[in-house]
Amino acid sequence: MTSKKIMVRNDGYGMEEVLSLSETMAARLNLDRKKAMHLRLLSEEMMAMLRSIVGNVAAEFWIGETDGMVSLLELHLSADTRLYKKHMRELIAVSSTGQNIANRGVMGRIRGLFTAAFMPENEYAEEMANYMYGSSQSEMNSGTMTGSSAMYWSLNRYRDDVQEDLEHSGGQTPPQAEEAWDELEKSVIANLAEEVKVGVRGNHVDLIVYMTRK
């Protein structure tokens, strides 16, 4: 079962419809009260992330079931980056930090990677791949993100990377890993989602949040 697709913009357009859709899908999928609330909260987190992006950005949002895994739901946010690359280059060039917004917290990191897709030739995405936990440039084959991907980020890989740094620190805990773990513990999306994936592929960027139905 897949919902209709809703056009959303970072000026708030379509976001109330997204929240209404999350409630409609919860009823159609017979989710219990707790899971229905999780679906709405995750939808809210995704919309808050979109709203925090500077500039004028539009994307499509929809909810569906993971192929072959009826126990998982997918919340999608997908954008075509071609219309925004020149605009984003200009915005970041004139900002005081050289970045869209400081990427603090788990959602901040997700926003940073999502925004990176709008930079020409994915130059910013490639830069982020050098230091972000959970990033790779490998091929991904999950959900709609099939084929070669210039950039791929996974919440579960992020968590594993951070934990590995903490466990193999030799008594000297890396400040970056300690901060990242603290962010994970406090993050709504990290605590409610089964997995989160961001993929930059050609002229498209896809954010998929996975949640269990039970």
Helices and strands, with pairings:
Elements: E1 6-9, H1 15-28, H2 33-51, E2 58-66, E3 69-80, H3 85-94, H4 105-116, H5 123-129, E4 135-136, E5 151-154, H6 155-167, H7 175-186, H8 188-192, E6 195-201, E7 204-212
Antiparallel strand pairs: 1-2, 2-3, 3-7, 4-5, 5-6, 6-7
Tell me the span between the first and last alpha carbons.
16 Å
Mean pLDDT: 81
Principal-axis shape: globular
Q: In percent terms, what proportion of residues is strand?
A: 15-25%
What are the key terms here?
214 residues, alpha+beta, 7-stranded antiparallel beta sheet
Please tell me about this protein's structure.
This protein has 214 residues and is an alpha+beta fold. It has eight helices and seven strands, in the order E-H-H-E-E-H-H-H-E-E-H-H-H-E-E. Helices cover 43% and strands 22% of the residues. Helix 1 (15-28) packs antiparallel against helix 2 (33-51) and helix 6 (155-167) crosses helix 7. Mean pLDDT is 81; it is low at 96-101 and 139-149.
